[in-house]
């Protein structure tokens, strides 16, 4: 019996999309990497919230608490006003100290540096057991922090784009999409290249591939898109 290997053309389409987006938007700008616990805090307050709003809330937490151990031990009533501008603040306020307490209980100290030596899948699984941590937040801790592991981050903008491009199923969630796309990433990409890819796709989702009334005729990926409005002749 002959084994037939079928090439998945999504790999080529993903790389083509990356090239076009980099040509259109340019390389994403650099940013300061947070330590892993700080990135966890940022991720826990940032869901469904504009970046500027979550960044402001993060800075208020930084200013109030001298260290994250102080946030871990703080009452929810003290935390809630500091993050009041973020979405679902009343849910996130108790989750913040709960997640930090669980890290401390499981490791004996409030640190995530040990994840640097773990396989990516095991590190994701460990983080996703923390209160309020899903695949997106876990991936940001591993990729956006000083851990700088080659783990793909997918947010709602990124997910919307790859669904419309047909790179994942139309009903795929973030975790399923992550598991589907990770094997398609070029083998030569490291953490920085994977981060750049996410930032480029996210930018497309914000500027062109919007949830409603997407700007399909002007989209730089319209030739690759399975759902976009055809270009007028």
From TrEMBL:
Q: Which UniProt keywords apply?
A: 4Fe-4S, DNA damage, DNA repair, Endonuclease, Glycosidase, Hydrolase, Iron, Iron-sulfur, Metal-binding, Nuclease
List, in alphabetical order, the GO biological process terms annotated in this UniProt record.
Answer: base-excision repair
- Cofactor dependence: [4Fe-4S] cluster
Q: Where is the HhH-GPD domain?
A: 45-200
Molecular function via GO: 4 iron, 4 sulfur cluster binding; endonuclease activity; hydrolase activity, acting on glycosyl bonds; metal ion binding
Q: Which family does it belong to?
A: Belongs to the Nth/MutY family.
Q: What is this protein called?
A: Endonuclease-3
């Amino acid at each position: 019996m002959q084994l037939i290997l079928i090439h998945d053309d999504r790999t080529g389409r993903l790389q083509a999309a990356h090239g076009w987006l980099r040509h259109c938007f340019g390389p994403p700008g650099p940013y300061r990497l947070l330590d892993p616990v700080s990135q966890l805090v940022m991720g826990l307050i940032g869901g469904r919230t504009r970046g500027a709003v979550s960044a402001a809330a993060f800075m208020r937490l930084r200013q109030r608490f001298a260290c994250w151990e102080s946030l871990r031990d703080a009452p929810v009533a003290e935390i809630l006003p500091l993050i009041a501008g973020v979405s679902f603040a009343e849910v996130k306020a108790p989750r913040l100290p709960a997640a930090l307490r669980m890290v401390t209980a499981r490791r004996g100290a409030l640190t995530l540096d040990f994840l640097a030596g773990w396989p990516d899948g095991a590190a994701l699984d460990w983080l996703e057991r923390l209160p309020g941590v899903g695949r997106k937040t876990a991936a940001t801790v591993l990729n956006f922090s000083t851990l700088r592991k080659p783990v793909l981050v997918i947010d709602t903008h990124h997910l919307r784009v790859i669904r419309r491009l047909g790179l994942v199923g139309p009903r795929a969630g973030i975790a399923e999409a992550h598991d589907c796309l990770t094997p398609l990433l070029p083998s030569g990409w490291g953490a920085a290249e994977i981060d750049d890819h996410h930032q480029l796709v996210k930018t497309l989702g914000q500027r062109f591939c919007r949830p409603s009334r997407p700007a399909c005729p002007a989209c730089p990926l319209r030739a690759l898109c399975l759902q976009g409005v055809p270009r007028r002749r």
